[in-house]
């Protein structure tokens, strides 16, 4: 699966790891060595994140139930608690710098799609 910004056509990630069970959401990216540049963690349901027990910074997209970006957090450092936004239903964690590189903005719609072969 991959993540696409429908508003500008940019691919945010070619490989998406789903955290859609209690234990997958609990573990998230904790204790991982890095998040490869072509990967993302899609957390659902989710209203906020933390970066405890992580060794690297991440970018964070907050999505509503329609996949619309309602908040953006860039370069969240290890050992921090992310912001909580009232309309957030799902969160995408990306490598630091990915949001700026792909020009993702508030109000953009992000879609999870199956890879085309």
Terminal-residue CA separation = 11 Å
Proportion of residues in extended strands: 35-45%
**Average pLDDT metric:** 93
SSE string, helix = H, strand = E? EEEHEEEEHE
Proper CATH architecture: Sandwich
CATH topology: Jelly Rolls
By secondary-structure content and strand pairing, the structural class works out as mainly beta
Task: Look at the structure and give the CATH class.
Answer: Mainly Beta
**Strand adjacency order, main sheet:** 3-4-7-5-6
Counted up, domains total 1
Q: Specify the overall morphology.
A: globular
CATH superfamily: Protein of unknown function DUF192
Biggest pleated sheet: 5 strands, mixed
Total number of strands:
8
Rg, Cα atoms, Å: 13 Å
The helicity comes to: under 10%
Number of helices: 2
Which residue ranges are poorly predicted, with pLDDT under 50 across at least 5 consecutive positions? none
Keywords:
three-stranded antiparallel beta sheet; 117 residues; 2 helices; five-stranded mixed beta sheet; Jelly Rolls; mainly beta
